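Continuing the series of single-chain predictions for the mutant panel. This is the parent chain; the variants come on the following pages.
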Amino acid sequence: MKLVKAYIRPMLLEDIYSTLRKEGHCCMTVFEGEGTGRYSDPDDQHGSLNFPAMHTHIVKIEIAAKEEDVSSIVEIIKKHGRTGRSGDGIVFVSPIEQPIRIRDGKQGADILN
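Parent structure:
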């Protein structure tokens, strides 16, 4: 199993989400946040009351996926998350060592079914 984390522009979430669902990738967690980095879009940077430094609004998507689904998920995010401008985001793929479903204690990749 793998964990796909994608940091994207908020305005592109709906398209990415819809395409992922249409292609059978049903389950994800979405976080709204603020961040700054080397690739922030200088035309979209601003401060907020909580974080006065220059930064950008972002959305983080997390998807626990079977190994065979990762390429498809990443390609969808890349295709539908791209504007061609600095600050489009980044995707990380990491191994999941031990998935455990809280409800019944079941472990392994089968908990995604």
